[in-house]
């Protein structure tokens, strides 16, 4: 197993000293149900190849032993495999590979829902960000069937609020949050049991710094709350994360997190599908995840857009494993 350095420099947190005697034991957490681990090997929603290998790289970086060391039992749900772009007709240029992406989302959604019905906490490894249409809607529908709403926190350099009508690229990974909040291709909207799958009033984006021109209008019209990188710089990350958690938790059963590794600066996370300069730091990424763990409101977590082809010695995958551990309760003290 590879050694992963522990993350350094984050504060122990407000309740750090109040461990109530459970010294070495992992922090109690409602998410400490057994973990259902699902890999979604797809890059059809992205503009370049490689993120389909993300789930394997995270496993090589020690994801499973890391979670077991935290006390989690893991149930493997296996891998949902998309066909490669060489063998898949791209179809319409404004939503490339839509039929195949729909099928991958449908299968990912079913596996996620089944696991939750069995009492498991869904942890999803991607894969390009289109997969969230399946997984996040599964978490939403699981709770909807129980009369509950969920929040959604989208940690990403992008807002993923494009639609076929406005997309400059035709890449579906830039449309997934739009679909989840009610606008997009019918083939994807109809996967969820309700439209929108998630009420935009409970949706936050953290770290956005690259939004397409027409996408800005869609963001403004949608009612989601975007903490842009400049707001994060102006007000500080901790305040923004606290507000995002508050908004996603108010009147909901809790929130699902969709964590796109491109939110982190490419200097620290080079192995991502769509690198954008000016991202958050290694320590800030951990702070986000630790705050989510401390909130005790986490309903599901997915880590997406890891691209091993662009990575340097699997360091982005190692960072990703550390972030999952932080989100699931690992802390410095
Ligand atoms: Mn994304």
Explain the overall architecture.
The chain has 333 residues and is an alpha/beta fold. Helix 10 links the parallel strand 7 and strand 8. The chain has an eight-stranded parallel β-sheet with strand order 2-1-3-8-7-4-5-6, with helices on both faces. Helix content is 34%, strand content 15%. Bound molecules: manganese (II) ion. Manganese (II) ion binds next to loops.
N-to-C order of helices and strands: EHHEHEHEHHEHEHHEHEH
Q: Unreliable stretches, pLDDT < 50, 5 or more residues?
A: 1-28
> What is the overall silhouette?
globular
User: What's the CATH class, please?
Assistant: Alpha Beta
User: What's the mean pLDDT score?
Assistant: 92
Strand segment count:
8
Strand order of the largest sheet: 2-1-3-8-7-4-5-6
Distance between the termini: 23 Å
Bound small-molecule species: manganese (II) ion
Number of domains: 1
CATH architecture label name: 3-Layer(aba) Sandwich
Give the secondary structure arrangement, pairings included.
Elements: E1 35-41, H1 54-60, H2 63-69, E2 74-81, H3 98-117, E3 121-126, H4 132-144, E4 151-155, H5 176-180, H6 186-189, E5 203-208, H7 213-222, E6 225-228, H8 229-235, H9 237-249, E7 255-260, H10 282-295, E8 298-304, H11 315-327
Parallel strand pairs: 1-2, 1-3, 3-8, 4-5, 4-7, 5-6, 7-8
The structure holds manganese (II) ion (MN).
The site of manganese (II) ion has 7 residues, from loops.
